[in-house]
Amino acid sequence: MNAALAIAVCTLVGAVTAPNASVAETKKVDGYEGYKFGMTLERALKVRPYAKQIQCDYDDATTCIEYQTTIFGFPATVTVQFRPTNQLLLSKILIAFSSMDEPIDHTCTEVGKELLKLLLPKYGEDPLIKDHQVTWSSPEGGSVSLSVLCIGPEKGLNVISYQPSSAL
Questions:
Q1: Which end of the chain, N or C, is less surrounded by CB atoms within 10 Å?
Q2: What is the per-residue DSSP string for 68-113?
Q3: Residue 19 lies in a domain
Q4: How far apart are alpha carbons 135 and 129 in whole angstroms?
Q5: Separation in Å, CA 68 to CA 31, 78, 136, 158
Q6: What does the pLDDT look like over 78-132, one tens digit per residue?
Q7: The most confident of 12-16, 102-106, 158-162, by mean pLDDT
Q8: Are β-strands 128-130 and 133-137 bridged in parallel, bridged antiparallel, or unpaired?
Q9: How far apart are alpha carbons 129 and 62 in whole angstroms?
Q10: If you count DSSP H runs as helices and E runs as strands, how many of each does the chain have, helices first?
Q11: What is the spatial distance between Cα 123 and Cα 136, in angstroms, rounded to a whole number?
Q12: How many domains does one find in the chain?
């Protein structure tokens, strides 16, 4: 994380945890936008019929569903990952916000700051901050992480990750 974003993380977390701050906390993270952890591929394909099933190469995921969308006013790619077991089960959801292609409409740093500002009130005031990642663990299961992977202030990638507390 670059220095400006690290300062923003500390400043925003400090602002949210101020004594009079009113902060909502999501009690359980069990998926995202209709996708639920443990859901079969067949069922997940019905959530967004326009999403494309693709082969993917992630740790513990060989099949994915992917689609383009706009979230918080930023273009994003949603990748729904499936772990190969007896049947393919939804195991993780990634939302990637790229600031790599020219022209850059929103810098990596400004996207990271805005995402953090929007995620803090929803997921709680006490995230774990380590290196370039901010993680919220929900009390009844699941977690949400924001990874800020900027190459300087302009280019890079911000990724929001939704995952269950334990492997499916």
A1: C
A2: EEEETTEEEEEEEEEEESSSEEEEEEEEEEEE-SSS-SS-HHHHHH
A3: no
A4: 6
A5: 18, 6, 25, 15
A6: 999 998 877 889 999 999 999 987 777 889 999 999 999 999 999 987 899 998 9
A7: 158-162
A8: antiparallel
A9: 29
A10: 3, 10
A11: 6
A12: 1
Domain presence at residue 168: no
How crowded is residue 14: how many other Cβ atoms within 10 Å of its Cβ?
11
Neighbours of 151 (CB within 10 A): 12
- State CA 17 to chain mean position distance: 22
Q: What is the DSSP letter of 26?
A: -
- Give CA–CA dist 52/68, Å, rounded: 10
Q: pTM for the full model?
A: 0.84
Mean pLDDT of the chain, nearest integer? 84
Instruction: Kindly state whether residue 33 falls inside one of the protein's structural domains.
Output: yes
Residue type, 109: T
Q: Is position 18 within any domain?
A: no
